[in-house]
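Weekly puzzle thread! Below is a chain. First person to post its structure in token form gets bragging rights.
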Amino acid sequence: MARWLPRSLFSRMVLVLLAGLVVAQLTSFAIHWQERGQLMQQMGGMRSAQRIADIVKLLDPLAPAERARIAAVIDSPTLRISLRQPSLSAAQDADEQSAQAAARLTGLLRRFLGQEWPLIVNVTSQPAPWIQAHGGPGSGPGSGPGMMGGRGMMHGPGVASRGLSFVVQARLKDGTFVTFDLRPPLDTTDGPYRLLLSLGVLLLAVVALTLLAVRWVTRPLKTLADAAEALGNDIERPPLDETGPLEVSRAARAFNTMQQRLATFIRDRTHMLAAMSHDLKTPITRLRLRAELLEDAQLRAKFVKDLEEMESMVSAALDFMRGLVAREPPRPLDVMALLESVQEDMRELGGQVAIVGRVLAPYHGHPQALRRCLSNLVGNAVQYGKSATIEVVDAADQLQICIRDDGPGMPEHELERVFDPFYRLEASRSRDTGGTGLGLGIARNIARAHGGDIVLRNAAGGGLEATLTLPRRS
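Winning reply:
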């Protein structure tokens, strides 16, 4: 299930909040719609009972002829009226639902009529026989178009299911029975479009506020993540702003303290090692002078070779340490010119270097550091592979420089270890070659100081491939 979740904290918070909002809105809509239906039925039942009570009160004082005429006027398809039916008896075999519906309608009628007029209320699923005998709705005793009928009186007494008829009979004071057949039509209420629209507008407003709130809450995390990523490229980067909510300011303060301690530790270590390497140059120089006084030429050559190797290692160590602290100002530079300069240097040393592709735009970086990085990579390729091919791939977001040699390559498990300071492969990079084990480490430090990296891999056709990737920052 976790693989289907969004990866970012922002997306997960939005998903959880939106899911909760949608469930809450749907639940609210279902409850509201059910209560609305019950309320509409109750209101319809009250209207029907009120109408029957008003008709009874209207017909009671009239003469029989006038009653018939008035009944023909107010007769309608949803409320049929008859003055000719005999006395009804309460239904004895009605089911529970029908009995409850009849009881509720009786209660409503008593509320409007009182106890002056005896009432019988039955519930049936079929129209009354006297309605079928007179042609169904629209005809009957005193039949007429029905001036009070129509869609306005459409709901039964709070319980009306489709297809049920409520037969109500009231005995007037002169003994005449007036019989009503109340048949609610199919539900013709409008659909829940307005309710859905209002809920939709509310949901959209809440979603917009949720997105804004979640973005506001997660923005400090993004700032902290960006600062942590930039810290790996520049330990001296400006500190984070320590303003904002309490939790955010505490996290920023802790991050700034960590950065300050790391910078102090690296600075002290670098100064110490650089001082040691610098101090070693003095005794090496004295030993070189004394070696020149040796009479044995063969022994003198061995001493000089060892001293040159020691001096080379000390110089490389100084360069390695200086590369962590020396900060030349970055500026736009022509990388193709750097590559061609390195190519010319290698040609003077007898190496063959070919360049494929071109850099399309200037790169913003440190010129001397990048030249040192490229020189180390190309020099390694020429030294151990006799020749090198530089392939340049320039894109809008990054500059990629791939350097391939024709050498033997190296074991897969050594591809990362060779970046460690003073680490060398004895099989191919022995002391006889003059390597100190710092060249690749210096090159990677320079690449990472520019936000990029160097990756080594064995080429498919043989040889080693070093890929330098430098991001282009807008």
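Puzzle host: Confirmed. Bonus trivia for everyone else. DSSP finds ten helices and eleven strands in the chain.
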